[in-house]
Design a protein that fits this description.
homodimer, 191 residues, Jelly Rolls, four-stranded antiparallel beta sheet, 9 strands, DNA-binding
DNA sequence: TTTTCAATGGGACAAATGTCCTTTTTAGTG
DNA sequence: CACTAAAAAGGACATTTGTCCCATTGAAAA
């Protein structure tokens, strides 16, 4: 549910240690919007600490959360390859620390650093791999099953992430999520 | 709706022309399953002609279509980066021609051919970019709106792709799709 | 041509989810 | 500590979508 990539985190920290002027550290407080949908930016971010949500909002203001990003996850990288606007907003949930790098340097690294190139390639592939079954599951199963599934992979999810965000992640209304949680609780209490 | 990547198609054909022994051409007839979910393969395919569907099926046999792939789209590449099982099945819809290449050669190309590396990177990024808004839209809007949207981007979709596949692409039952199509027709007939 | 089977279309009802509101709880602020 | 605003919980009802059928059509096979 909260995606991480420790291998990438380790490597970007190592680069930061060796080559401080290309990579810079930034800190953000909770609920801070780092990237806004449909804009242009010229930096790629790597999370070293904390959690963000990455979401699309439509004209009615509905948010649909794509991913929760944790340590080692990158964002802002898609726009390096296809020079278009961002498709997602990224907003911090907890305090956040990032290492960031300009598009120019990112490109340079991709060309000169084979290992870096491979890590980014793998990170992209993993994003695709991860999304497919998730959306498939969400469509095919009732809300309750989705909640059970979340509980399994991340038992304390209700403590860290707000109900609204969880609902937007599953793609349902808060009302429906509450209903599912209540029914689930009643069922487990009976036992 | 049917994704293509002409730039990649052009380049892989060019490579095929120059270096025939690493890349081989294959032909498949309609409804042929080229790749099956949860298996291992050692080839990457590039479509040069025809259409396939790429889908996940669950334990109840429900199919959820991730993408329809057309000219220039690749499949089987995700497993090069994370050496796991396939997450999708890929099945031809029309006759299909592909150029395929072994994992080993694919990796070699990525390392030695900068342009190829960049094209693959971009192809991965585009797959991510494309998926996000699509799933968001499908969750947020009723079936009818989704059908209207498909009509806009691919007017003759009902002729090429079966109702069942369209329904599995939108993530609804055939019954619901038919209902939506009927209501849509009634509305437009009134005008 | 007849037969067969899959694809399509749709009726009737059930179940899941959304909408609209109101109440309760919680956390933060003056 | 009291006050306020946001988050959470849930009642009542409407709407959407699914399930379970069966009828029709069309195309491929015998």
């Amino acid at each position: 549910m909260i995606r991480i990539n420790l291998e990438l985190a380790r490597y970007i920290k190592k680069l930061y240690g060796a080559n401080e002027h290309d990579i810079s550290e930034e800190k953000f407080s909770p609920k801070h919007k780092i990237i806004e949908q449909d804009r242009r930016y010229s930096k790629v971010y790597f999370i070293t600490e904390g959690i963000t949500k990455c979401y699309i909002s439509d004209e009615n203001g509905k948010e649909f959360i794509q991913e929760f990003l944790g340590e080692g996850m990158e964002f802002g990288e898609l726009e390096v390859f296809s020079k278009k606007h961002t498709i997602c907003s990224v907003e911090t949930i907890t305090q956040l620390k990032t290492l960031s790098i300009s598009h120019t340097c990112f490109n340079a690294l991709l060309e000169t650093d084979n290992h870096f190139n491979r890590l980014i390639m793998k990170a992209l592939a993993d994003k695709i791999r991860y999304k497919a079954p998730r959306h498939s599951y969400q469509h095919s199963y009732p809300i309750e099953d989705n909640v059970i599934r979340l509980k399994k992979i991340f038992p304390e999810f209700t403590e860290v992430i707000s109900k609204k965000d969880i609902a937007n992640y599953i793609g349902v209304t808060t009302r429906s999520l509450n209903r599912a949680l209540k029914e689930l609780k009643e069922k487990t209490d009976q036992l």
